[in-house]
């Protein structure tokens, strides 16, 4: 695909007319998706797709086209046709005062040339390890490629061969052990170990279920649960544009009116993440961007368009100015001491379906899911029926935050809307003094 | 291209028990303006094919945009290989099902002719509405408007006979205004901030949606909200308008009735359902006033179609009649799986994929509440103390689709049968299994409106599909209502 992408860029350069410029962004993958239910296969298949974004600019005008590619010679006449249509569209649009393209070409290449076993072998491993248990989930495996090119000759490429297995083992009803793992090398032994460990944990979920009354409770949020809480800040929270538009849930943080706990430090860490270090206008992302430092506002994600609009420096963010490689600093609570430190309260393995109940106040609601336990005197007593919380992030991660764990987990996003996600988050677990349960 | 694709497919070599081709073309464009400046023009052309194979009891698929004969043959071979590799390990013995081999053609409204898409005039319209929203008011800090068009054309072909072609034309207008003062902001929109006014048809949708004149009207409501008190908390009656009813239907009727959820497919991602296979035919889902239909033949709704993506013909089906649960939202394969489990409960033609590169699964389509007999003034008059809420802004529900909490952009108090002042940050929470039984009045056809969403998320791999919801205004008794942070 890299050679084809370079060929398309070369072809476009040869077709340009005076005063024209272009950028190309490619997102491609050939993924085997295998879906499991009840420890068996529900649907198995392969998706081979390549999407190209072409931006054609002339002076201060520009228009963009997203295009599915065949990956062969058929793409050249297609691009010629699209070029004609884009030129016509340029006549209909006004100058864009906020267009900003990278004028300092910087090419790069990152190849992870690992080789995975055939996906059929991975499926056999999963079926064997899950024999006799109610496993449900999805395996995604295969190469993922990102490319950027422009009329100035810049070319950036990232290619990874990877797998992501997102799964749960069900005990009964809605009670399950949720797990997810990803990597560039496949180990059947590691898989067997992880599923065997999950099998053992099913015993806890088979205990009689406890139902809590609404109220305020101590709680420990695992890294996966904390990731769900922090994901709400990705709904415009880190976006400079949304701050300026007064729609950011971090507006009161940026204005200095509210703050989080001094334990909370959040960084966009492109260097340690899985997402590409380049973006669709050709800008290279800095290794890291501080977002929240010791509970205070430290910065935002600034796309080239926002940078131009407000006359500020950009930092290589994409159009939506959302985090793709989140890093939350570790705390001082050893994981082995979590239950003891929690004492009596909720051990929340997973949260689900969060949304704002008052965006500007940072107030969010959501549900516990999969395995949430009631803990008494440092020991797990019973699984809990799902509960709804409604609380302010400024409280949960501010006045009520008691500790973050020493250990952190790297969570690779298993999402695949439109294409496999390259987002990731590295974060600790969080112990809070009180979370407000409402239903 | 469509005839060529069918010819290439029919010429492929296969040993599969069953195979089908679904070729899809999507052509779209979005015009948008923000704060008086046109946003970058975005166009989209997406073409590709999905080949589905049932073989030796296994199920396999392969999707490709390489639509040459060689590309399609490679996809067919890969799909067949997956069917063979998983045969004997599948949740269902797919050799037991005979998928339809349909014949026909369906043209949605507006699909039969070219759209009158005058970019310059439409951009001017959006700029005018945007300017009317701002109108020099310093409290208006963000204002935007957009209009998207999408043409979808697809052909479904089964080997050994059967071909269906369908074409759709869709429009999505939107407008949003944010007002800010004294550290507080309120956002009001036309039909919601997530494409709630999405319909099939031509340019008539622009005026039907109320885009003309929306800039000033929406901005005035944002300013009203900015000055309004928070919605009160407490147990009271709730009058939901169609822009919120669509979300209420979607989350607490649509998703729970999806048969693949009930069969457990979604437990790792979108969740399960509080509804079980044994409930159909007798479970009291709502009050006797509740009548819910799956209606893919409501032509101007977003998910109207003639056949689903497994080739089943689409007709109107009553899912809930007089409050009693009748049928699930399940396509041919899910129905067969339910029968194999001992539950012959029927279903609908809702096996749908979001595009050529995802396999069909059970989805909502047009899921509607049938109108009742109450005029709007009668709905209000029947409420002693309550709140009217309109336009969804927040949605959250548990993985069994039971405990929910929703918020709206706009609220108005109702006291002694009369509409009173505006309230901000209105929200409510409840439990699906009991909420619908508190339905105490249903509006007539004059209160009915057609809404939908372009982005209903579900499935592994993930899919965001187009869904339609039409509903009258409805009143619910004794609901737990709340407002924003004090």
UniProtKB/TrEMBL annotation, chain A:
GO terms for biological process: proteolysis. Keywords: Hydrolase, Protease. The keyword Protease applies. SUPFAM superfamilies: Putative modulator of DNA gyrase, PmbA/TldD. Residues 214-434 form the Metalloprotease TldD/E C-terminal domain. It comes from the Bacteria. InterPro entries: Metalloprtase-TldD/E_C, TldD/PmbA_sf. GO terms for molecular function: peptidase activity. This is Zn-dependent protease.
UniProtKB/TrEMBL annotation, chain B:
InterPro entries: Metalloprtase-TldD/E_C, Metalloprtase-TldD/E_N, Peptidase_U62_metallo, TldD/PmbA_N, TldD/PmbA_sf. The keyword Hydrolase applies. It comes from the Bacteria. Transmembrane segments: none annotated. Keywords: Hydrolase, Metalloprotease, Protease. The keyword Secreted does not apply. Pfam families: PmbA_TldD_1st, PmbA_TldD_3rd. Residues 19-83 form the Metalloprotease TldD/E N-terminal domain. Residues 233-481 form the Metalloprotease TldD/E C-terminal domain. Belongs to the peptidase U62 family. This is Peptidase C69. It comes from Chitinimonas prasina. The lineage of its organism: Bacteria, Pseudomonadati, Pseudomonadota, Betaproteobacteria, Neisseriales.
């Amino acid at each position: 695909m890299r050679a084809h992408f370079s060929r398309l860029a070369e072809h476009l350069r040869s077709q340009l007319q005076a005063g024209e410029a272009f950028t190309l962004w490619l997102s491609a993958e050939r993924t085997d998706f295998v879906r499991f239910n009840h420890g068996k296969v529900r649907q198995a298949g392969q998706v081979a797709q390549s999407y190209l974004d072409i931006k054609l600019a002339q002076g201060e005008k520009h228009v963009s086209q997203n295009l599915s590619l065949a990956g062969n010679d058929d793409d050249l006449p297609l691009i010629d046709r699209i070029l004609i249509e884009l030129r016509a569209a340029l006549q209909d649009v006004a100058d864009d005062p906020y267009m900003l393209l990278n004028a300092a070409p910087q090419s790069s290449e990152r190849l992870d040339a690992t080789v995975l076993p055939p996906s059929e072998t991975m499926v056999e491993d999963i079926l064997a390890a899950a024999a006799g248990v109610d496993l449900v989930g999805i395996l995604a495996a295969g190469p993922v490629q990102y490319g950027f090119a422009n009329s100035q000759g810049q070319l950036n490429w990232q290619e990874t061969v990877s797998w992501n297995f997102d799964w749960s083992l069900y005990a009964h009803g809605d009670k399950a052990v949720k797990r997810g793992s990803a990597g560039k090398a496949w180990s059947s032994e590691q898989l067997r170990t992880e599923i065997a460990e999950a099998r053992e944990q099913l015993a806890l979920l088979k205990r009689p279920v406890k139902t809590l009354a609404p109220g305020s409770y101590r709680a420990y949020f695992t890294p996966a649960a904390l990731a769900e809480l922090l994901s709400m800040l990705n709904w415009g929270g880190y976006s400079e544009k949304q701050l300026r538009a007064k729609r950011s849930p971090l507006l009161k943080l940026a204005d200095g009116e509210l703050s989080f706990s001094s334990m909370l430090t959040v960084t966009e860490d492109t260097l340690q993440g899985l997402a590409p270090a380049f973006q669709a206008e050709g800008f290279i992302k800095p290794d890291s961007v501080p977002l929240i430092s010791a509970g205070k506002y430290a910065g935002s994600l600034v796309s080239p368009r926002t940078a131009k609009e407000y006359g500020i420096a950009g930092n290589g963010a994409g159009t939506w100015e959302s985090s793709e490689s989140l890093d939350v600093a570790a705390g001082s609570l050893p994981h082995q001491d979590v239950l003891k430190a929690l004492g009596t309260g909720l051990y929340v393995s997973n949260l689900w379906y969060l949304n704002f109940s008052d965006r500007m106040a940072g107030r969010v609601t959501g549900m516990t899911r999969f395995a949430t336990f009631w803990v008494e005197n440092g020991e797990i007593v019973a699984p809990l029926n799902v509960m709804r919380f409604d609380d302010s992030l400024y409280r949960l991660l501010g006045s009520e935050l008691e500790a973050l764990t020493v250990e952190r987990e790297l969570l690779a996003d298993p999402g695949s809307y439109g294409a496999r996600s390259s987002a990731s988050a590295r974060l600790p677990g969080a112990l809070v003094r009180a979370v407000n349960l409402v239903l | 291209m469509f005839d060529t694709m069918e010819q290439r497919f029919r010429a492929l070599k296969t040993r599969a028990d069953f195979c089908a081709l679904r070729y899809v073309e999507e052509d779209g464009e979005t015009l948008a303006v923000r704060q008086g400046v046109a946003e970058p023009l975005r166009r989209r052309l997406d073409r590709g094919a999905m080949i589905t194979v049932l073989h030796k009891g296994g199920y396999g698929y392969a999707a490709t945009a390489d639509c040459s004969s060689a590309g399609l043959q490679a996809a067919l071979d890969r799909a067949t290989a997956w069917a063979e590799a998983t045969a004997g390990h599948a949740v269902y013995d797919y050799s037991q099902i005979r998928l339809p081999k349909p014949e026909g053609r369906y043209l949605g409204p507006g699909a039969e002719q070219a759209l009158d898409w005058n970019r310059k005039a439409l951009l001017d319209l959006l700029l005018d509405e945007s300017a009317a929203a701002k109108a020099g008011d310093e409290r208006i800090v963000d204002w935007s408007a957009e209009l998207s068009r999408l043409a979808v054309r697809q052909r479904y072909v089964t080997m050994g006979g059967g071909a269906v072609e369908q074409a759709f034309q869709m429009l999505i207008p939107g407008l949003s205004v944010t007002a800010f003062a004294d550290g507080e902001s309120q956002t009001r929109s036309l039909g919601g901030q997530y494409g709630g006014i999405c319909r099939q048809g031509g340019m008539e949708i622009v005026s039907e949606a109320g885009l003309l004149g929306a800039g000033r009207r929406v901005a005035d409501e944002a300013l009203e909200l900015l000055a309004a008190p928070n919605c009160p908390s407490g147990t009271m009656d709730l009058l939901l308008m169609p822009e919120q009813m669509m979300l209420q239907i979607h989350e607490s009727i649509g998703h729970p009735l999806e048969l693949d959820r009930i069969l457990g497919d979604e437990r790792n991602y979108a969740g399960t359902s509080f509804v079980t296979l044994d409930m159909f035919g007798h479970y009291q889902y709502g009050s006797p006033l509740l009548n819910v239909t799956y209606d893919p033949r409501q032509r101007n709704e977003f998910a109207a179609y003639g056949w689903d993506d497994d080739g089943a013909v689409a007709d109107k089906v009553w899912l809930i009649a007089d409050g009693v649960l009748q049928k699930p939202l399940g396509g041919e394969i899910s129905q067969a799986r339910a029968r194999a489990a001992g539950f012959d409960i029927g279903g609908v033609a809702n096996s749908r994929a979001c595009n050529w590169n995802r396999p069909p699964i059970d989805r909502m389509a047009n899921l509607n509440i049938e109108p009742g007999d109450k005029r709007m003034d009668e709905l209000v008059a029947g409420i002693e103390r309550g709140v009217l809420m309109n336009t969804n802004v927040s949605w959250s529900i548990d993985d069994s689709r039971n405990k929910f909490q929703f918020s709206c952009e706009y609220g108005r108090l109702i006291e002694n049968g009369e509409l009173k002042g505006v309230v901000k940050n209105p929200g409510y929470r409840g439990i699906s299994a009991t909420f619908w039984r508190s339905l105490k009045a249903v509006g007539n056809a004059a209160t009915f409106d057609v809404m939908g969403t372009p982005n209903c998320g579900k499935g592994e791999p993930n899919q965001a599909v187009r869904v339609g919801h039409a509903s009258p205004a409805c009143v619910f008794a004794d609901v737990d209502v709340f407002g924003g942070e004090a």
